[in-house]
Specification:
The chain has ten helices and no strands. Helix 1 packs parallel to helix 3, helix 2 packs across helix 3 and helix 7 runs antiparallel to helix 8.
Length: 246
């Protein structure tokens, strides 16, 4: 399908960008590792609001939509500044922020998968594009701030929720459901999975921890610690007799 036949509604795209900008500002205001000024907060808001769309369009080898209109940058900067100024109010509404975060993930994932499917990509690559779009802003944020990338560590489901929603969208589209209805269903599925993961602290299993002795045998890089001979010698020593009390 030609690219000109598919277009994400401007209001929906700006909604995702604005919510992402607020999320970036709240993250920057709650981060105690270093102090950020207005410019720093605006940059984090732009990265969170526009990063997913930029990554989506770059992977699809298409012109970045976020750079074709003035409203994207204006919305991202304004939302980040509003989020910074009202950080104290938003912090009291923690549940609302978590819900907004889940919706943002769903929106970017649905937009990325929808555009990839409209351009004729197969299901699996289209889902991959959607997941990259959903988590791209968070990855760029962590890289810019010099933090460990959040999705690479054990935690509540983030990319998995986006992937599930994107697969639902692709399946509904293959079944003949209109793309708009499939995208709305995808956002709902992603948000529900993300919220359940946060509420019930659900996460993927951690990597299996190898025993040190097994690693040492296989690599010969770590010396194997045997039983402690001095300890056995100490056990054989006669214990000193207590002195009689006067």
């Amino acid at each position: 399908m030609p690219e000109t036949t598919f277009a994400i509604p401007l209001w929906a795209d700006l909604l995702a960008v604005g919510l992402g900008g607020v999320q970036g500002a709240l993250f920057a205001s709650g981060f105690t590792g270093r102090r950020l000024d207005l410019l720093g907060v605006a940059i984090i808001g732009i990265v969170m609001g526009m990063g997913g769309g930029l990554i989506r369009d770059l992977l699809l080898n298409s012109t970045p939509v976020t750079l074709q209109s003035n409203w994207y940058l204006i919305t991202a900067v304004a939302a980040s500044l509003v989020g910074m100024l009202l950080a104290g109010v938003f912090q009291r509404l923690n549940r609302l922020i978590i819900a907004l975060d889940a919706v943002v993930i769903g929106l970017f994932g649905a937009f990325g998968t929808s555009k990839a499917l409209a351009l004729g990509l197969p299901v699996v690559p289209a889902v991959f594009i959607g997941v990259c779009s959903a988590v791209g802003g968070g990855i760029l944020r962590d890289v810019i701030m010099g933090l460990p990338v959040a999705i690479m560590h054990v935690g509540s489901l983030y990319a998995v929720a986006a992937g599930a929603g994107c697969f639902v969208l692709a399946g509904l589209d293959a079944a003949g459901v209109p793309l708009g209805a499939a995208a709305v269903t995808s956002v709902i599925v992603t948000a529900v999975i993300r919220l359940l993961a946060v509420i019930f602290d659900i996460s993927l299993p951690e990597q299996r921890r190898l025993h040190r002795r097994k690693v040492a045998v296989e690599t010969s890089a770590i010396p194997i610690v045997t039983a402690d001979p001095p300890r056995r010698a100490w056990l054989r020593r006669p214990r000193p007799r207590p002195r009689p009390q006067r």
